[in-house]
Design a protein that fits this description.
- This protein is mainly β.
- The protein has a domain at about 220-360: TolB, C-terminal domain (Neuraminidase).
- It has helices spanning about 70-80, 95-100; strands at about 30, 35, 40-45, 50, 55-60, 60, 80-85, 110-115, 125, 130-135, 150-155, 165-170, 175-180, 185-195, 200-205, 215-220, 225, 235-240, 250-255, 260-265, 270-280, 285-290, 295-300, 315-320, 325-330, 330-335, 345, 355, 365-370, 370-375, 380-385, 390-395, 400-405, 410-415, 430-435, 445.
- The chain has a five-stranded antiparallel β-sheet, with no helix packed on it. Strands 6, 33, 34, 35 and 36 form a five-stranded antiparallel β-sheet that branches.
- β19 (about 250-255) and β20 form a beta hairpin.
- The longest helix has 8 residues, at about 70-80.
- The chain starts with about 30 loop residues before the first strand and ends in a 5-residue tail after the last strand.
């Protein structure tokens, strides 16, 4: 949910159109005699996309946060790959049944050699393109690598038409999302830090057959609540300093990211701070504090209320300084308490929240499917039902990259180290590769190992 742009501030973006994309795979534009073209976004939780019979994914995984990170070396295993998943996976004849689950299947193809498997990866499909992120490779003015920045790319399904269209700074507060605008077109929205300390801007890029320019939607933004696919109001609500001399006061504005129109919603109250912590459809959640009251989290219906963000007892959501990762599930909302890091569940209007999972039992929320929340840590992938609060461990392995996930409805895709080792191998392979599992925990390697 952010917009891309650079300006002298903090974003080193490049609109470089590399037409040298390597068409290393056969054309898959047709399936059953029909051309494959997606008018709407196809999203599978960010680490994979499925196009016709083919699954596209990062073959391997390497964290760019590591001090010894080498982009080119990591890309040798973490490139954009694909495999045909319409038939059963096949293996060489000498592969035993015991080793198949952690043996590379036949038919893994390289589509593009950019590093796809890393911690800031996001991937989706629109039109005839796969859009994906990769670690920035543009050097700074001192000829150093800055891998905290994230570059945006797209490529056609067979590897042709490779383009880079933006690079942005990235930190724990950054947001990148793609949403449909009020004009019916799709926009890449970026909330990104500038070169100035603690200053964030909102950017957008229109995507589709033709890429639009990078547009600055708003500057010096303190927090955002970006519409999601279920929002009827297609805008971004944000807070910013009201510039009242000598006072801390946050005002609230909205911006239509398709037209750029900004509206003033609430001028704020002197000596108050308002921070948006989430948005689900047309419900926004925000923390509010002033000189007389401790910070608490409130909610507001953007459709059935006025423009003012007045915290009252009736719209209080949770007694905490802040919460994050708010998502609708069941008849309520799951969220993470920023004070305890526990996974919680609550319905609007209820007095108490239910503890789902303690912080020591999970690291990341993966996705929601029906009444289930899927989550992971460094060794397991699990789920919990918000109806009966029953918890199940689906996968238990030696080492999993927690939080990096794809989901097609049938399979969960994740990175892990090889579980079974070939006794004849000269050395152990400690790389992380893409696996998949069904909902019964039957996992299978789908990457090509070294």
């Amino acid at each position: 949910m952010k917009k891309n742009i650079f300006k002298f501030l903090s974003i080193i973006f490049c609109i470089a159109f590399f037409l040298t994309g390597c068409a290393t795979v056969s054309n898959v534009y047709n399936k059953d005699g029909s051309s494959i073209y997606f008018d709407d976004i196809q999203y599978f939780q960010g680490q994979v996309v499925q196009i016709g019979d083919y699954l596209y994914y990062g073959n391997g995984y390497t964290s760019s946060d590591s001090d010894d990170f080498d982009y080119n070396l990591s890309a040798q295993t973490g490139y954009l790959a694909r495999i045909n998943v319409s038939d059963y996976l096949s293996f060489d004849e000498d592969v035993s049944e015991e080793l198949k689950s952690s043996t590379s299947p036949n038919g893994v193809e390289k589509v593009n050699d950019k590093l796809i498997g890393y911690q800031n990866q996001e991937m989706f499909v629109l039109g005839e393109y796969i859009y994906f992120t990769s670690a920035n490779t543009h050097k700074t003015s001192t000829l150093e690598n800055d891998y905290t920045q994230v570059s945006l790319f797209r490529v056609k399904f067979n590897g042709d038409g490779f383009e880079e269209f933006g690079t942005f700074r990235n930190d724990e507060n950054s947001i990148r999302t793609v949403q449909k605008g009020s004009d019916g077109s799709y926009y890449y929205i970026i909330y990104s830090k500038t070169n100035e300390d603690d200053v964030y801007n909102l950017y957008s890029i229109k995507i589709g057959n033709q890429l639009g320019d990078i547009v600055t939607l708003a500057e010096d933004v303190e927090s955002v609540a970006i519409c999601d696919k279920n929002s009827t109001i297609r805008n971004i609500i944000y807070s910013t300093d009201s510039d009242r001399s000598g006072h801390t006061t946050d005002c609230v504005k909205s911006v239509d990211f398709a037209t750029g129109e900004i509206k003033n919603l609430d001028s704020g109250v002197t000596d108050t701070t308002l921070t948006f912590v989430g948005r689900v459809a047309d419900i926004v959640f925000y923390s509010y504090t002033n000189d007389y009251k401790a910070t608490e989290v409130y909610y507001k219906d953007l459709v059935n209320s006025d423009n003012y963000f007045n915290p009252t007892k009736s719209n209080k959501f949770y007694n905490a300084t802040s919460i994050k990762n708010i998502q609708a599930v069941g008849s309520g909302y799951m969220f993470i308490s920023t004070t305890s890091s526990s996974l919680m569940y609550k319905t609007l209007g209820s007095e108490d929240a239910t503890l789902l999972v303690k912080s020591e039992n999970y690291s990341d929320v993966l996705f929601i499917d029906g009444d289930y929340i899927y989550f992971s840590n460094s060794t397991t992938i699990s789920r919990i039902n918000v109806i009966d609060f029953n918890k199940q461990d689906l996968v238990s392995m030696t080492s999993i990259i927690s939080g990096q996930c794809g989901y097609t409805g049938e399979y969960i895709y994740f990175y892990a180290q090889l579980e079974e080792k070939d006794e004849d191998a000269k050395e152990d392979d400690t790389n992380y590769y893409m696996y998949r599992t069904d909902k019964e925990g039957n996992y299978q390697l789908i990457a090509k190992t070294k």
